[in-house]
Amino acid sequence: MNGWGSALAIVLTAAGTATAAHAQTKPALDVCAIVTPAKAKAILGALATQPAAKTDHIGFGIDSCMYIGPLMSGQGAQRVLSRLTVQAGSGKDAPDMLQMDADKRQATVPLAGVGEAAKRNPAGTFVWAKQGGAVCTAEIANGLPKGVTADSAAAQLGGLCRDIFAAVNAVKR
Description:
Largest sheet: 7 strands, antiparallel
Number of domains: 1
Helix content: 25-40%
Mean pLDDT: 85
Distance between the termini: 57 Å
Number of helices: 5
């Protein structure tokens, strides 16, 4: 086989793999149906109208929902918007993957009343929680909304994880 034939074979193989992986993108848990725009707005304030939030299956048994909030700083191409991301997962890999997020974001402060175990970062912008085999993370990126304290933000993020766990338990029944 000449060089072009080998390259074509590699491209076809990669395309076949991508199609197979794409077929597995249906989320196991519709996180955006649980973390509604109204709940996101209560945390972030005004939400951007585009893009519309939808649950993404990001792999490793993790489903994710993201909302874009108001402008935090900057102008034009240098604008920084707030962002709320909630991830939920279970299974073999999800707990370890989401634990790595907690470690990276220095979630070391215990957070009571959320699942079997929960912790947050000192800034209140990130929460990790676990209940049974389910794990949830919730994060506000690019700074807290004006007037929101770290404790208040962490409590609100913990509430989103409680909602996730309630939905997971409802599905199990």
